[in-house]
Design brief:
Distance between the termini: 42 Å
Structural class: alpha/beta
CATH superfamily of the largest domain: NAD(P)-binding Rossmann-like Domain
CATH architecture of the largest domain: 3-Layer(aba) Sandwich
Order of helices and strands: HHEHEHHEHEHHEEEHEHEHEHH
Number of helices: 13
Helix content: 25-40%
CATH class of the largest domain: Alpha Beta
Length: 312
């Protein structure tokens, strides 16, 4: 079923401040963890002992111990170096969430590809909006390290994908990129908010299904991990700005290694401290259904700068 394109309306300002976005952020980083069994410099380790009374058993035990100790040390240094490794990250979409993730990741030295349908038209949007924010064209001028490309190019280039498109167009956009996304990990930030009946919006899918599940079903070779959809874009990439980071990020997805990648990514790149794994992709139902209460809290506080904390 073809989903509706979200029309430009008074809801646009709300979209920019909530966990609902008009852009897709693709940010994929295959943070592989390989076991290393060789010495740090590829040398064969030789142990020379001149004490004759030592038995062969003791000598062999000592060699095994030293090799095991070296392997642990080498693995530690390897994993530590991977944390600072430059990644190729595709950000599909140019809205507030796309800008938040792309800007943050580029500032950390990663290669960021921001995807859009028509780069020329996107770059031409330079007007200041009603909330005094610069158009995406001005933002790109201020962030030259972010490369604006077509959706397909960004999807091809990125290793880790972040989907932050409006929920009404996410499935259509991602389905069109199916061949480029196969085998990759997608961080799905989208929410199925429908503004067709005005404001406030309602969920176009809920209870027995979710947008996250629909994306996973449509692209079975893609590893969909739901995350970041329950908070404002700025909090997503800078959790320390709210309650000194003492709040929670939820994740859900079928592929355990991909989920571990996203959890490590959130901790290492954005500084998340508290992350709860809710299980498989069906848990995206509850994560997306948080949005109605999020809207009420946002209106009550007159601010999107908050998040949920699970106390126990």
């Amino acid at each position: 079923m073809r989903q509706k394109t979200l029309p430009a309306s008074s809801a646009d300002n709300f979209l920019e401040q909530s966990p609902i976005y008009e852009a897709v952020d693709l940010c994929d980083s295959q943070m592989t963890q390989s076991a290393i069994s060789r010495s740090p410099h590829g040398r064969t380790m030789l142990v020379s002992l001149s004490i004759l009374p030592l038995t062969r058993v003791i000598v062999n035990s000592l060699i095994i111990f030293l090799q095991h100790k070296e392997s642990i040390s080498t693995n530690y240094r390897y994993n530590e170096s991977k944390q600072g490794e430059t990644m190729k990250i595709a950000v599909l979409g140019t809205g507030m969430v796309g800008q938040a993730h792309a800007g943050k990741l580029a500032s950390l030295g990663h290669q960021v590809f921001m995807g859009t349908n028509d780069p020329a038209k996107t770059r031409a949007r330079t007007k200041i909006d009603q909330m005094s924010r610069p158009g995406i064209g001005l933002w790109l001028d201020a962030n030259p390290e972010v490369k604006l490309t077509k959706f397909a190019t960004a999807a091809q280039q990125g290793d880790l994908i972040i989907n932050a498109t409006s929920g009404q167009v996410s499935l259509e956009i991602l389905s069109g990129l199916k061949k480029h996304l196969a085998g990759k990990t997608l961080i799905d930030i989208s929410n199925p908010l429908d503004f067709s009946k005005g404001f406030p919006p309602f969920l176009s899918v809920s209870n027995t299904n979710s947008l996250g599940e629909q994306i996973q079903k449509a692209l079975p070779e893609l590893k969909v991990i739901k995350a970041f959809n329950t908070m404002n874009a700025v909090v997503q990439t800078n959790p320390l700005r709210t309650a000194e980071g003492d709040h929670h990020l939820f994740v859900a997805g079928d592929d355990k290694p991909a989920k571990d990648t996203v959890i490590s990514f959130a901790k290492q790149q954005y500084g998340w401290k508290n992350i709860i794994d809710l299980g498989d992709i069906k848990s995206a139902r509850g994560m997306e259904m948080i949005l109605p209460i999020w809207l009420e809290i946002r209106n009550s506080l007159n601010s999107p700068d908050f998040n949920f904390k699970i106390a126990r």
